[in-house]
Specification:
Elements: E1 27-32, E2 35-39, H1 41-45, E3 56-62, E4 71-77, H2 82-98, E5 100-108, E6 111-120, E7 123-129, H3 149-162, H4 174-187, H5 206-217, E8 267-268
Helix pairs in contact: 3-5
Amino acid sequence: MGPATRITLRPHDPTTGEEIEKDEVVRGYEYERGQYVTLTPDELKALDLESSKVIDLEMFVPRGEIDPVYFNTPYYLYPDGQMAVEAIWVIGAAMAEAGTVGIARLTMSRRERMVMIESRGTGMALITLRAADEVRAPQFGKADGAVDAEMLEIARTIIDRRTGSFDASKFRDRYQEALRELIEAKMKGAAIKPREVATPAPVVDLMAALKRSLAQEMPPPKGAKARRGIKTPDRRQPTLLLPVSGGRKDGSEATSQPATAAAKRRAKS
């Protein structure tokens, strides 16, 4: 195999494989399978909304009323000029006192978005929100009967022992770390050894799984030594595992769906 080199993707006809010049490519919308409405640059330009540096707060709502499933991308909001500094301080202080957030509209990248504004000390944070048709309605099943009291008590005990303060610095992207290590090793010409991936045992008996988790949470007796042949649990992986189905099996449908819905039709070029 020769040395690696970058490639260039060129537009082509998927049927004939013939390369197409860029000036021949147009934007279009597939309204039926294989049927498109083409759109000119001038027609798309006419849809652009006027961009404004002023965020018009249309209403204020209690912070707890907005489901986080609607959150999209967060930004820090900085004032532009002394008047904006005073406005952010005053409005932010009033919102914090009332426990509310502001709802507004803002044009970003030629698209109007609904945004949420919340107070952050002497500043503010802006979070873009998904539209209602971008979020799926939950389809959870109904619970049959009451929750088992013993299992509930064990789960409460585990949660109580693991309750703490959130610190984002403690949660690392282990995939990115492993990827950096792999790249550095290959740059140095070191031998690469594949890592062993431990597969958790399937949860068949929830009561037994909860009791195992509770036993692992118990501190060892004072003066006790670890017995040979017994592996300590991997603290990188939480031991309280939820029996959530992932992926599809032959002849069955997936039991979980993403909360955000993909667009049914997209503009193609």
